[in-house]
C-alpha cells in the first residue's frame, strides 16, 4: 500500500490548495460563499469594529473547516461502505451536525453584532 507522505512543507501547501479547489465544486461551500459575501456587505454597512470583524472571520472559517471535514468524512464513508449501513449514516450525520453547530454560532453571533 502506497503511503501518502509529502516530501516538504511546500508540497503540503500545494496539496492543501488542491483540496481547497476541490471544495469549490461542493454546492454547500458555494452557498456559504454567498452568505459570506452578504454578511460582509452587512458588516461594512454596520461599520463593524475590529473585534466584530475578527469574530466574523473566525466564524466564517469555522464553517468552511467544518464543511471540509464533513465532506472528507462523506467521501471516506461512501468509499468504505457503499451499501446502506446505520454506522455509516451515523458518521455522516455527525459530520453534518458539526457544520450545523458552526452555522448556528455564525448566525447567532452575527445577529448579535448586526442587531444589537
Q: How would you characterize this protein structure?
A:
The mean pLDDT is 94. With 116 residues, the chain is an all-alpha fold. It is built from four helices and no strands.
CATH fold-level topology: Helix Hairpins
Secondary structure tally, helices:
4
CATH architecture classification: Orthogonal Bundle
Total domain modules = 1
What's the CATH first level?
Mainly Alpha
Would you summarize the structure shown here?
With 116 residues, the protein is mainly alpha-helical. The chain is built from four helices and no strands.
Keywords for this structure?
mainly alpha; Helix Hairpins; 4 helices; 82% helix; globular
Helix/strand layout:
Blueprint: H1 9-23, H2 27-45, H3 50-80, H4 86-115
Helix pairs in contact: 2-3, 3-4
